[in-house]
Amino acid sequence: MNFSHTDRSWVEIAPAALRHNAAVARARIGPEVELLAVIKANGYGHGLAAVAEALREEAQLFGVANVREAIETRAVVRQPVIILGPALPDERAAIVEHGFIPSVSSFAEADAFSRIAVARGSSVALCAVIDTGMGRMGFAETEAAEGVGRVAGLEKVRLHSVSTHLPAADEDAAYTAVQLRRFQTLMGRLREEVRGDYLVHALCSAGVGRFADSAADIVRVGLMLYGSSFDPALQSELRPAMTWKTRIALLREVPAGSSISYGRTFIAGQTMRVATIGVGYADGLPRALSNRDAVVLIGGQRCPVLGRVTMDLTMVDVTSVPAAAVGDETVLLGRQGGEEILAAEVAAQAGTIAWEIFTGIGSRVARVYV
User: Which pTM value belongs to this model?
Assistant: First the structure.
């Protein structure tokens, strides 16, 4: 490993696990469907360039959030790069220049890209998004056929794909099934009215888990690639790609009645051995884990977090780990011995989602590829 022994906190990321998880997705969708690897937000905290490099043989497309991420991706891979969110006006020229695929929600956006392409003597491929229930972006469902048709007729524009987004694939299977049927019906009409070789995509990771038979031409796989799923059965097939570690910085014995951390929200009921570990909310360990029965792994045992998580340090009960010593590795996410902490567990304790746990890990946490 290429990390310094002075690092207070680091994540160990396994590219082989990323490839394994891509293979799990591939097994579900079959060989004909294209896999779009979602690597926005610094590869969900795993390192954008490293994730792209790891998946260059597995993914047919890559998905990012903005031009800067797209340029970083293009430096590593040659596959098409789709910018999944709406582009700012100042980003459009660079998108056309570099040949990225922007997502558009209106004729006005598409027309702006067309004008830039005409002025440059080039062309642009677009992804037309249809809003079937997400409410975040896209042509209104009732106006989509007409809108997408107008986009396809623009000068110097090629319609690369038509997509929609599933807002509740991991929470509401009944709604999602109806949403997918509506989208499929709409796409049947669109295929008749708007000719072309454009592709269709709707499924995210949760969709691949539950609705793989609706895969269409492309699936957008994000969380699943990193080894996390809401579905225990799918989770058992995946390999978490990240292990997040820190070290014990200090060990102290505190008597009964001692208060731990800000606000004195934890009072020791008996003499305890307390480890101070070198990580806090500035590193991405959620402050919301305070007093929520959160644990870390030390010596292969689950050790409770005590009191409030602070900016740089967190206190942990190691009374049951008498061999614990200053400098010992402490696992925040991942496996140690026979125990494992998944991102979904941490997210549930913090009242959030696994996506936020991964993407919230800060820049001072070293990334190490193993």
Answer: 0.94
- Give the active site residues: 40, 262
pLDDT at 218: 98
Residue 56's nearest CA partner among 22, 30, 86, 89 is: 22
Q: How far apart are CA 131 and CA 210, in angstroms?
A: 21
Residue with tokens 């400098």: 327
Instruction: Burial-class residue 254 by CB neighbours within 10 Å (0-12, 13-18, 19+).
Output: middle
pLDDT tens profile 94-144: 999 999 999 999 999 999 999 999 999 999 999 999 999 999 999 999 999
- Has residue 260 got a pLDDT over 80? yes
In sequence order, what E strands does the chain have?
9-13, 34-38, 61-64, 81-83, 101-104, 124-131, 139-140, 157-163, 199-201, 218-221, 242-254, 259-260, 266-267, 272-277, 295-298, 301-306, 314-317, 329-336, 339-341, 366-369
Output DSSP code: residue 230: S
**Pairwise CA distance, residues 145 & 41, whole Å:** 32
- 140 contact partners, CB below 8 Å, separation of at least 6: 131, 147
Tell me the average pLDDT of the chain: 96
Model confidence at 287: pLDDT above 90: yes
188 pLDDT above the threshold of 70? yes
Cβ proximity of 79 and 112 under 8 Å: no
Residue partners of 309: CB distance under 8 A and separation at least 6: 261, 280, 281, 285, 286, 287, 289, 290
Q: Are strands 157-163 and 242-254 parallel, antiparallel or unpaired?
A: unpaired
Q: At what angle do helices 173-193 and 144-152 cross, to 10 degrees?
A: 50
Residue 47 pLDDT grade (very low, low, confident, very high; cuts 50, 70, 90): very high
* The pair of three-digit structure tokens given for residue 103, joined into one six-digit string: 């997502």
Residues 150-163: what's their mean pLDDT?
97
Pairing of strands 272-277, 314-317: antiparallel
What backbone phi and psi angles, to 5 degrees, belong to 364? -85, 0
Give the pLDDT score at 5. 66
CA-only gyration radius of the chain, Å: 24
